[in-house]
Design a protein that fits this description.
Layout: H1 4-9, E1 13-17, H2 25-34, E2 39-43, H3 49-59, E3 64-68, H4 73-82, E4 86-89, E5 103-107, H5 110-118, E6 123-126, H6 134-142, E7 149-152, H7 161-165, E8 173-175, H8 181-186, H9 189-200, H10 207-210
Parallel strand pairs: 1-2, 1-8, 2-3, 3-4, 4-5, 5-6, 6-7
Helix pairs in contact: 2-9, 3-4
């Protein structure tokens, strides 16, 4: 089983996917993986999400299917059964520790991080990153929370991703810009692969160290 830190170290950007039609899932995933992005977060916001995860798990070699918007233990179990190898949650909850697959829970404050540390966790999603204070807050977290790593998500774009990735406690970022609806509608998988390649090239010099325990 992949660990949270291992998943966060695989690429500098984790695509956040809201898939409306599961029939497109494998094509989207292949384009992203071909572009160098292996961990694919499929948010559980649509009826197609679990089917999309299952298709990616079964049909796309080298993909690491992930579930997003996991709100409770039922979501986590369903995602794991579908084939997700890791899960993302918007907040801290007890199910984040000891579940069937690793959970990367969302934090926005020092109190959130402390609650996660009490659960034995040290890898978090910083969410919603832009609204919660962005790079400045991540810098403030470095002092009291040495050894903790983050995946900022929420308000991350191709234009500002590098600013977040420059922070020493950031292992990767999550973003939805990699799968424009127009490209999906047109079946323009080459355009998605190009976006993925640009995102994969964003890895900062410190990234390798954030994957260590």
């Amino acid at each position: 089983m992949i660990s949270a830190r291992e998943a966060m170290a695989l690429a500098p950007v984790i695509p956040v996917l809201t898939i409306e039609d599961a029939a497109t899932a494998s094509d989207i995933a292949r384009a992203l993986v071909s572009g160098g992005l292996r961990v694919l977060e499929v948010t559980l916001r649509t009826p197609a999400a679990l089917d999309a995860i299952a298709r990616i798990a079964a049909e796309v070699e080298d993909a690491v299917p992930a579930a997003g918007t996991v709100l409770n233990a039922r979501d986590l179990e369903a995602a794991a059964r579908a084939g997700a190898q890791v899960a993302f949650s918007p907040g801290i909850a007890a199910f984040a520790a000891g579940g069937p697959i690793p959970v990367i829970p969302g934090v926005a404050t020092a109190s959130d991080i402390m609650a996660g540390l009490e659960l034995g966790l040290d890898a978090f999603k910083f969410f919603p990153a832009a609204a919660a204070g962005g790079v400045a807050v991540l810098g403030a977290f470095r002092g009291p929370f040495a050894g903790v790593i983050f995946c900022p998500t929420g308000g991350i774009s191709e234009e500002n991703a590098r600013d977040y990735l420059a922070a020493p406690n950031v292992a990767c970022v999550g973003g939805s810009w990699l799968t424009p609806p127009a490209a999906i509608k047109a079946g323009d998988w080459a355009a998605i692969e190009r976006l993925a390649r640009r995102a994969a090239a964003l890895r900062p010099s410190h990234a390798a160290s954030t994957g260590s325990a």
